[in-house]
Amino acid sequence: MELENILGTKTDVNFTNATNNACISIPSGPEDISRSRNCKPVQPILERFPKQKDGDRFRSFNSKLYHFKWLEYSVSQDSVFCYYCRHFSENGSISDYKCDTFIVTGYRQWKKCYGKSEKENRLLKHQLSFSHCKAVANYEAYNSTIEKGSVISQITQQKIGVRESGSLFRASAIDIESESIDYGPHSGNFLSLLALVGNHDEVIARRIRHGPGNAKYTHHSVQNALLDIMADEVKNKIFEEMQAAEYFAILADETKDLSKKEQLSIAVRYLYDGNIHEEFLCIEELETLDAEGLSSKIINVMKDRVNFQNCIGQAYDGASVVSGKHAGVNAIIKDRVAPLANYIHCFNHRLNLVLVDVATSIQCVRDCLSLLQKLYVFVSCSNIHTKWIKMQTDRGLIVMELKQISNTRWACQVSMLRTVCKRFMLLYELLSDVIENDSNSDRVIEARELLYQFSPDFIKTLFALRHIFEFTKNTSDLLQSPELDYSDALELLEVLQERLNDCRTDTTMQNLWSQAANVCHDLGMHDLEESCDMQRKTERRPQHAK
């Protein structure tokens, strides 16, 4: 197949007539490239692209590479992405795309963007890959059905209108024949919904009114029994697939529910019909939280249904109660029923532990995250939160909420950093307004303390952390994919390491420095250079002068 046939030539497509369902947001990637299928590939032309050191030479992106019509260039990250794969991948699976940086983190090894063979040219290698060709095919299919989709949607809307008219007519006829169905104000959600449907559906209404009193199946015990039957059918299907697959792994995690009761979720992972399956089995309430109680729950759920001799893996978090090699859950299961079940510490948990440990070992990072947590607590106060929402809506902005910092959920840090960076000026204005106009002295003092911490050093750390944490967030999300395997996980971590190393370049730091300096300038603060000079003078001050 020729290169142009694989690539396709219809890139200048007008998506303005696409249906709303076609406008799909991209969960990851920089904001200065296409964000939906309605957008065209972003291919900016700059007078001078940023340079980065590659061995003994400095290299940069070249706009001549835009002859790859699918190529998008992000100025903020100095990286290229694939338009087709980002928007038209079938399911964004790891198995299809492996660790394809053209979708998630971006590619910037400019030395490997030239050449006539796949070995020399990484862009050409991606273009000829099976996953890219599938994305191109999906793009062509999508493009050809836009016009048809508009016609179909009109026909569908007409049918919906006719159906609703018929429903209203039937409902009127039923109401004339008899009063509307009503189970009373304290009947519960299920019966209330059933009454609502019955008032607009003749078949259900007749069943409720004229059906035998002992066969309506509306009692909560009957409904729960039906749910249990369906759950058993699903589990039976899973166990059948596990037996056909032969080998499997156990996944389990413990957490508290809203009533503060400890619950253990149990899932299994196996290869069936050429595809990796990660299936949820059940949630079991825990009476004890020791290794003996946890392992007994896991064994009892699957005993007599699977051959534990074929269990080749156990995946948990790093808590000692499950990971302990002598008395942990993994040791008990391995000793008693599954001698081949090796323990695997969840890659995502491991990454999170490393990130938390590194972040808390650096003073400026630790202080920054601590301040963000205090800011979250302050803004969460009912009066302040109402004012925070109003300030955003009055300016026509999308409402963004501050997220609580959590050491076990790295995405919370990323979300918090994004929000604070995007709404920094508004947060500054909010704190200033509280200081000037709030009648509560405690709130005024707290707002003044927070505002005092909005220093150039804090702003510099804030923007640097957001840039770095974005990479770790993408990797963390991909490590949670059910289709992830060991080689993919290693590859993801290698790419993350490369991206973190790239953050040390002068170009990257200059971009971050400029962002922080602009904010400081808007707030009338000392610029970062003056701040650093003052800090260095303080550090060099003689001991007797302190």
From TrEMBL:
Coiled coil: none
Annotated TTF-type domain residues: 57-152
Alphabetized InterPro entries for the sequence: DUF4371 (IPR025398), RNaseH-like_sf (IPR012337), Znf_TTF (IPR006580)
PANTHER family: OS05G0311600 PROTEIN, PTHR45749
Protein name stated in the entry: Zinc finger MYM-type protein 1
Source organism of this protein record: Araneus ventricosus (Orbweaver spider)
